[in-house]
Amino acid sequence: LIKITPGIDCANSIIKSIYKPLAGLQSNSPKVFVWPSAWDYVSIGLDCGKSLFASVKMAYEITKLVVSFRNDVAAIRDCQKNFDPKKKKKKPINIVQSFDPNEKEGPAGYGVENYISYQSKLTYTIYFENDPDSAQVPAHTVIVVDTFDLSVFDINSFEINNVTIGDSSVNGLPGAKTLAANINLSDLNVDARVMMELDTVSGVMQCRILSLDPVSGNEIEDPFSGFLPPNISKPEGEGSVTFTIGLKENIKDGLTVNNRASIYFDANKPITTNSFINTFDLSSPKSSIVSVESLNNGKEIINIEGNDSLSGIDYYEIWYSENDSPYKLLNIVRGNIDTLEGVIGNTYKLYSVAVDNVGNKELEPTTPDVQFVMTSTDDIGLDAMWQVYPNPARDYITLTIGFKNSENISVDIYNQLGSKVKNIFTGKINTGIWQKQINIEDLESGLYFINCQINGQKMINKLVIQ
Length: 466
Hints:
- It is a single chain.
- Helices cover 14% and strands 44% of the residues.
- It is mostly beta strands.
- It has four domains: 8-80, no CATH class; 104-280, Immunoglobulin-like (Sandwich), CATH 2.60.40.740; 286-374, Immunoglobulin-like (Sandwich), CATH 2.60.40; 382-465, Sandwich (Immunoglobulin-like).
- α1 (8-26) packs antiparallel against α2.
- The chain starts with 7 loop residues before the first helix and ends with a strand.
């Protein structure tokens, strides 16, 4: 302790210089008083100087320690003041971030259920955008994750198509399940590092895109620099990931496949895309021509029925044969009624083939749905007089029919679907002219048919209601 105390060496040297001459007087030798030499004074000066320097240094270090302690105390008080949880609204912090609206698309189908027929492979695209309305800075890192249902998808058939950033893209190799490439975005002075891979065990696909310095190749740390700027001038702030994947062979009719992805934008929480749904319609529709009704001499109304339990019927093909000639396509019909103009006395055979809204087509029947001989209305006891007035009509019509004989008749109005919407008359009429005024105000605008049936035979005339 004595050796490290400032001033001890100085005092010790002075005492020695005084004691040394006195020690000479106390010895048995002749009494000689020896004055301190020059070297003794130099030694005293060095020891005292060193002690003085040590004292100053210690005072300086103690002063620094005190000042540092005061600064630390002040810093702690400032921190407590600024980040006091009781006063957390006192000083707002401006946070900048990128933002992703996201979307997923897949095979286009029919209707809300997005019906599709069987396809060997499905192509999906996951879109992401740095929304200019919500983002203040470029996106630095984007991660896209998609998980496939291994009971539905054939994971080994997965294939990367491409990754797009703005108007630049990089393509995967045929059959590739991994991708590693740089996209140089010279306008931004950024290289976008694309790393995409598929885990075939878990069925998880991940695409990670980073922002790199094009010179050093290191990841950029500047929060105001990134590969995907706010999408002010489209498509500079847009990107996408596209891939193709096959289906397993046990897909059943009516199966619904639901797939969605998650997108991570920088440090933001993951955003889940829309659920993209496809429903498989694998069965063919059914149809038949249920009846043919005489319209006028040489004209027939063809009534068709059909059903499809999933996507529904899109149209019917109507095929006909005249006098056992090869079948020809008469018309493609979207609806349940068609018209045939033929030759009186000829024999006609007809059948229908339905096609649903995903393209499934009914097999052609081995026999016709209907077969008949074209006849004249005169052959069923009706006069040539057959008039509907006015036609088109709005509120009322007057129906006039001439009969050669007294007959039991039934007169009805049918819509385009072949459904009876109004009974006009049922009963017996005498020979001559039969006339009746009919109120049609209860019927909606459209095309109708007036059906006059006599002893199971029919005559039909068109009616247009405005």
